[in-house]
Write a structure and sequence with these properties.
By secondary structure, the protein is α/β, with parallel strands linked by helices. The protein has 13 helices and twelve strands. The chain starts with a strand and ends with a helix.
């Protein structure tokens, strides 16, 4: 496949690295420094066993690459989606499939404002990465990538799953897209904000009784909101799944924690904030999500560069 990834952050670099062994991969990014450093030095991935490998990759400044692709993957922050899509609209319109592996709720709706919804695939990943410097990442956790179609096009999703699998990525198809999105959200609504506020690695929420209790309260609220959306989850299984991910990726650092450390705006409004908005829509109280959204915004203000 000919694949272009929009966003050369840690996860964009990881998937470029993983997919390039089998496919023709190009990276796109909006930051001049990132583009120049990756163009010169390539992508270096450090694994948990301290081994490292570097590959060379094609990279372009956002808006400067418009070739036809089989697949475009959006891997920017939710807060940057509008800008990324606007700058690369020709690229998005010229692809066969458009996949988002972003965090949060509502990404498919935003993408649908720019391109035909029949192209749109959504996915989740259990990989976790930390950026050490532009193009140099620490791969702290791995797991399946699950992909589905927003219009129920199983063949399209399975074609991309097959492409990922051929590159050695553990990939699966899901026919229930909303369930897929919520399962990813359960992980992000706990690991991201709590470790960002505390400045800890991911494993802390599975190890500390207070962080674990807060995570459970957030999950219980979210499961009630999901029920209002017509989705039913076993809360005990949800908790077990989240803490399993936290333990497995224990040495990693969540993207929101990295954002706070670098004085960047977080995706909180698309994660816990989205749960709060849905709660208000259905008259389902979400005091924990509302509070943690406000705390993250306060933290953002206190760490501005």
């Amino acid at each position: 496949m000919k694949i272009t990834i929009i966003g050369a952050g840690s996860m964009g670099c990881l998937y470029a690295y993983l997919l390039s062994g089998r496919h023709d991969v190009t990276l796109i990014d909006s930051y001049d420094k990132t583009v120049s450093m990756i163009a010169e030095n390539g992508i270096t991935v450090k694994e948990k066993d301290s081994s490292e490998r570097t590959i060379k990759i094609n990279i372009f400044k956002s808006g400067q690459y418009t070739e036809k692709n089989d697949l475009v993957i959006l891997f920017v922050k939710d807060t940057s989606s509008d800008a990324a899509l606007s700058e690369n609209i020709a690229l998005a319109e010229n692809c066969k499939y458009f996949l988002t592996l972003q965090n949060g709720l509502g990404n498919d709706e935003l993408i649908g404002k720019y391109i035909d919804r029949r192209k749109i695939l959504v996915g989740t990943t259990k990989h976790n990465c930390v950026t050490l410097s532009p193009g140099h990442i620490y791969h702290s956790g791995a797991g399946p990538t699950v992909i589905g179609s927003v219009v129920g096009d199983a063949d399209a999703a399975k074609e991309v799953v097959s492409a990922f699998s051929s590159a050695g990525i553990e990939a699966e198809y899901s026919e229930n897209v909303m369930e897929l999105i919520w399962k990813k959200l359960f992980v992000n609504m706990t690991i991201n904000p709590i470790t960002a506020l505390l400045g800890t690695n991911i494993g802390f929420i599975a190890e500390n009784e207070y962080a674990k209790a807060l995570s459970e309260s957030l999950l219980e609220e979210a499961v009630r909101v999901a029920e209002c959306e017509g989705l039913n989850f076993d809360i005990e299984q949800v908790k077990a799944d989240v803490f399993k991910v936290a333990s497995y990726d224990g040495t990693g650092k969540a993207s929101m924690c990295q954002d706070i450390e670098h004085g960047r705006k977080t995706e909180i409004d698309f994660i816990n904030g989205a749960v709060g908005r849905l709660g208000k829509k259905y008259g389902c109280p979400t005091p924990y999500h509302d509070a943690i959204t406000q705390l993250i915004h306060a933290k953002e203000e206190s760490t501005k560069n």
